[in-house]
Amino acid sequence: MDRIRIRNLEIFGYHGVYEEENVLGQKFLIDADIFLDTRKAGLSDKLKDSVSYGDIIRIFKEEMNSQSDKLLERVAERLARSILLRFEMIDSVEITVKKPWAPVMIHMDYAAVTIRRGWHRVFVGVGSNMGNRQGWLDLARERILSGEEIRHFRQASIFETEPYGYTDQDPFLNTVYQFETLLSPGELLDHLHEIENEAGRTRQIHWGPRTLDLDILLYDKLVTEEEDLVIPHPEMTKRLFVLEPLCELFPYGLHPLTGERFCDIMDNLKHYER
Question: How many CB atoms within 10 Å of residue 220?
């Protein structure tokens, strides 16, 4: 990925834990690495095909002066978010906020915080088999699209499928959503649980009936196993009602653990279930 670099941008601001820092202010230094594809701009020589570092600098100044923060972590977070939300071409950013005059009563050049933030491609499995099934799917789509941390949303076809596991229940409507998000996996999981709760989701029976089920299937190429979140979803390769809509959106994608293409996994599962 190409990058635009900004180094030691000086901006006066009012950030710090101590009251005098918020009143008197001090100089901060900003480093930024802006990751994007610059090839089109390199061929066209037109600014519209890239991102102006002058615009980025002006936004940094606006953000630094818009409020007072106690922590450098907070300053860096706001700077990264503002750039990612305002410029469609930017994939990710690395921001360093330096504080040359940190009040520690001993000499040092500066204290600093560096963060890396960016857009992440996510696939979410969606299902409903209680009440107004289509209405619950519409609710999920609406709530996901309402967040400013979401972009490039796509939805696969909706499939009606027989229940899996616990079979004494009504058929499901299933689909898969694909989008990019600034949310971390944990933040995204919390957001999806909030949407499920709004739909009156309960978890009384494993694989039982539900108004709305939202599962993170893939998050970039991340492989993680935590108590409440396993990525990639451990059951996705066993479920045609996940693989069929997923393969509409991402047929030649590779499973992060096995390296198999999802279209091949689906074909093998169909052959096995004949």
Answer: 14
- DSSP H helices, 26-163, are 39-44, 53-66, 72-86, 133-145
What pLDDT band is residue 20 in, cutting at 50, 70 and 90?
confident
Looking at the annotation, which residues are catalytic?
Answer: 99
The strand pair at 92-99 and 213-219 is best described as: unpaired
Q: Is the pTM of this model over 0.85?
A: yes
At residue 203, the pLDDT reads: 53
What is the C-alpha radius of gyration for the chain, rounded to an integer number of angstroms?
Answer: 23
Structural domain boundaries of the chain? 2-118, 120-273
Give the tens place of pLDDT for each residue, 117-154. 999 999 999 999 888 999 999 999 999 999 899 999 99
DSSP state of 147: -
Q: Helix (H, G, I), strand (E, B), or coil: what is residue 179?
A: strand
Level-2 CATH architecture, domain 120-273: 2-Layer Sandwich (3.30)
CATH number of the 2-118 domain: 3.30.1130.10
Counted residue by residue, the chain has a size of 274
